[in-house]
Fold this protein.
Amino acid sequence: KFNAVAKRLDKRLEMLGGTRMLPLGLGDDQDAGGYDQALDAWLVELWKSLSIVHPPPEGTVPELSDSLPPSRFVVSIVGKGCPKASSGREDVQLLRTMKEFRADFDLAPVAMNLCITGEEAVKEVRHLEIDLSSCNQSYKAGDILAIQPMNRLEDVENFSGVMQIDLDVIVKVEPNPEYRSKTPLPALLCGRGPVALRDILLVHMDFMNTPRRHFFELLRHFTTNETQKERIEELSSVLGRDDLYDYCQKQRRTFLEVFRDFPDARPPLSYLFDMIPPLRPRQFSISSSPRVAPRQPSITVAMVDYISRTKMRRGGVCTSYL
């Protein structure tokens, strides 16, 4: 249900005697401007209401901080080499790397990968069967199958070329003591010891996704080129929301392409972890019956592969992986 948790919380606070300062605001991430589209207007009204309930002392000037917040992580380079996890391009080795990063997932072989559309079809659809016998898993009607993708090696090399970073560098990722937040940091990288940057880009960073406004709010701090900085500030502003939609969401422009467009904006590794989201599992409805194939669920997947308006080839991270 749409914003079910927010609605329940709002109703519960009202039942406990709370008084609304302003109408409930509900953001939709599928809007053209993302959830910011509703949030921006709601925040304007929030500050108005707060100034009435708790007016600032007379003569107080609001402080608008424009400083760069501390990164959540500290990334230190501990060496350079070609560790076992990164030494080859064999599929088996890549899967071992994936398993090291995502121990909460099971490795399962694909028993069948069959195209079920003709050559004249606008979109290719594939039938995949996953063999769960080796991981002792089963499923029931109504279950979903979550697949953890990894980036293509070609995209990883393109990203490293644009960012001018060495894929064979060995880094250690730790929590930043200056970052004060009660929100726990993801345990995916912290505390796992030295790891090759190549592996992080392969299985962790979703740099083929589309940036949101927060990305540009941070990116503007990492360029001294005034022309590029002015453009980035436009994209990160409330007034530039429509411009951001046309530039990013409408064209499905990726983090990789944005960094190409702004060659002088190069954040350090520690901030890349804050600016680029992690690769998340993609969920698919199971299209087979557990009575017929209790250990071999099937999924039916439409491949994402098209040419954008900017004449760039677009492909889904997970469908490319499949």
In short: Confidence is low (pLDDT under 50) at residues 83-90. Strands lie at 73-80, 110-115, 125-130, 144-147, 169-175, 195-196, 282-285, 298-302, 305-307, 313-315. The radius of gyration is 23 Å. The first helix runs from residue 4 to 15.
